[in-house]
Design a protein that fits this description.
Layout: H1 2-10, E1 14-17, E2 22-25, E3 30-36, H2 54-62, E4 64-70, H3 76-85, H4 89-92, H5 104-108, H6 125-131, E5 135-139, E6 155-156, E7 171-177, H7 236-265, E8 272-278, H8 293-296, E9 297-303, E10 312-314, E11 318-319, H9 323-330, E12 357-361, E13 371-375, E14 379-384, H10 402-412, H11 418-421, E15 431-435, H12 453-469, H13 478-485, E16 498-502, E17 505-509, E18 516-521, E19 533-534, E20 539-540, E21 546-552, E22 562-565
Parallel strand pairs: 3-7, 3-8, 4-10, 4-11, 5-6, 5-7
Antiparallel strand pairs: 1-2, 4-9, 8-9, 12-13, 13-14, 14-15, 16-17, 17-20, 18-19, 18-21, 21-22
């Protein structure tokens, strides 16, 4: 009997503390993030029964559905910067889409490709986990508005997988599903990342060519009922794009099932916290890039080991800036003080529920706008700093979509109704207020409704407070922002690490403030796909052992490497 008890204790347990509603981890769990792109809550587990998603439905039955989760932006790169740093993009200068690969038209306006430089104390959350013994992989999207820290991942590639970790190591693995991306409404290229075999064989060259020229099948019936939102016309063109969108969801669900199957095969299901979410709202026009709920509200499911809280719906307000601190809290690592977000689960769970969601929209490709949003559980406030600009921006990328082309044609012909025309207004009001309960598509502006004056003022004041407290850099011209990050448009470089010996131990420092230091043993760790080991304490090495060192501050160039051979 005693042996049984000991064995049970040795297994991975999650205890639900009902008095505080905290989830506490007795032993350090693995963490698995399953991330879909460009997807609103178009899922059966969130009330949309258009298609079936058996694998996500299983996660929902066995886990917790979080029904009020919001991105900080309606587009991917700023959103991902918030997820990995725990900070608002507007605060660290990551709010413009996108900084690392400017469109030709943006370059014609004098913009250069540049990396955002966060404050020196900012680390990617995966680096913090690696410093605490986690094996961290990313498969494979990066897109943080800065190049990943050399210390962020043990591996970040299409081949990355927890199965590559040292035996019995705890892991944090991220899998990104490009199949639901906006581009997949017109281009099946992303399909290559979402098919078996998975992961592909590292030794097979140009494995993606097998998908070249393959017509992407439709995984749904062409006759299914579609709930077309009122801001889009109900015609065959829109219907075709929405069928593809739902088909991509079905395909994504299959990949979710594949990864869960692998987790079960490895005997790790009940030792792993599984998180499913999307990087922002839907892919369709008047969804992606906007701060309406169609652009920033996302589905999220968390399955805890042993099905703790199975089937629950959690209605708390959650922002993307809460993800990093919650991840650390779940594995009993105290979140850094600089985070804008707070843990909503785990041992460091915040005592106070979030009252407001904040979001921002700024430059998209070559087009500037400036919108700030504040939302409570019912009302959404939008402040338009450039009311002379229309909501619709003629982005070349979006215009590849047949639905977008159809909207432009119908608008020109005068065949759009009032709801559909709103997006094409030549200007917009300085302030907007929406009742999301009674107007979920945010089509009726209530900013002038005298009965809501108190609510309007409340959200206005909260917007002002947020802008001030987070040092919103959206009010700085982007050219000045670039100069602040890269003086004279030249990217700074991290200084080489300094290696000293004391009492038979190697000590490493770096003169660049905020730089992390990494190392590799030259005889075992020099595979190009492997990340640098984070230096956290002095190293003891054998005589003649060779070590290569590097230092890196996010937004800076990594240092030149430095070789060291022990002679003691």
């Amino acid at each position: 009997m005693m042996q049984t008890i000991k064995s049970s204790v040795a297994l991975f347990f999650i205890l639900f503390l009902s008095c505080s509603n905290k989830i506490k981890v007795d032993l350090e769990p693995n963490i698995l993030w399953l991330v879909a792109e460009d997807l609103s809550p178009y899922l059966p587990s969130f009330g949309d029964s258009t298609v079936t998603t058996p694998n996500l439905d299983r996660l929902a039955r066995e886990g917790v559905r979080y029904s009020n989760v919001f991105s900080v932006s309606g587009v991917c790169a700023p959103s991902r910067s918030a997820i990995v740093t725990g900070m608002y993009p507007t605060s660290i200068g990551a709010h413009h889409m996108r900084t690392l690969s400017q469109q030709p038209a943006a370059k014609e306006k004098g913009l250069i490709n540049y990396e955002v430089v966060p404050p020196p104390n900012v680390k990617m959350v995966s680096q913090i986990l690696r410093e605490n013994g986690y094996y961290c992989t990313n498969n494979k999207k990066e897109d943080y508005q800065f190049y990943k820290s050399v210390l962020a991942w043990d591996e970040s590639s299409i081949f990355a997988h927890w199965r590559n970790r040292p035996k019995d190591s705890k892991f944090f693995s991220v899998f990104n599903f490009g199949v639901t991306h906006e581009s997949n409404l017109w281009d099946p290229w992303y399909r290559q990342f979402d098919l078996d075999p998975f992961p592909p064989d590292r030794n097979v060259g140009k494995w993606w060519e097998q998908f070249s020229g393959i017509e992407k099948p439709l995984y749904v019936s062409e006759n299914i009922d579609l709930n077309i939102p009122p801001y889009l016309p109900e015609n065959s063109t829109v219907r075709k794009d929405m069928l593809r969108m739902y088909s991509n969801i079905v395909e994504m669900d299959k990949k979710v099932g594949l990864i869960i199957d692998q987790l079960e095969e490895d005997g790790l299901l009940e030792k792993t916290i599984i998180v499913f979410y999307t990087d922002h709202g839907g892919p369709l026009p008047r969804q992606k890039r906007l701060l309406y709920d169609s652009g920033i509200k996302v589905p999220m499911i968390i399955r805890y080991p042993n099905k703790v809280r199975a089937g629950e719906v959690d209605k708390r307000m959650i922002s993307f800036v809460d993800f990093a601190p919650t991840l650390l809290s779940l594995v009993e690592i105290e979140p850094p003080d600089y985070y804008h977000g707070s843990p909503f689960e785990g041992i460091f769970k915040s005592k106070n529920e979030r009252k407001y969601i904040h979001a921002a929209a700024d430059r998209f490709d070559e087009y500037y706008d400036q919108i700030r949003a504040v939302r409570d559980k019912r009302y959404k406030y939008l402040r338009n700093y450039k009311p002379d600009k229309p909501y619709y921006l003629p982005l070349e990328y979006r215009q590849k979509m047949n639905t977008m082309q159809e909207l432009l044609h119908l608008e020109k012909e005068g065949e759009l109704n009032e709801s559909q025309l709103q997006w094409f207004r030549k200007s917009k009001p300085e302030e907007e207020l929406f009742d999301t309960f009674n107007d979920p598509h945010e089509l009726r502006n209530l900013a002038n409704d005298t009965s809501l004056k108190e609510k309007l003022n409340e959200l206005k004041n909260e917007c002002d407070k947020w802008i001030h407290n987070t040092d919103d850099k959206g009010f700085m011209p982007e050219t000045e922002l670039i100069e602040m990050f890269w003086p004279n448009k030249k990217q700074p470089r991290t200084e080489k690490p300094l290696i000293t010996t004391y009492d038979g131990m190697l000590h490493a420092t770096c003169e660049t403030e905020g730089a992390g230091i990494g190392y590799k043993y030259r005889n075992v760790d020099m595979q190009p796909h492997l990340g640098w080991k984070p230096y956290t304490k002095p190293l003891k090495v054998e005589k003649g052992q060779e070590i290569e060192w590097i230092a890196h501050r996010i937004g800076f160039l990594p240092s030149l490497t430095k070789k060291y051979k022990s002679d003691f």
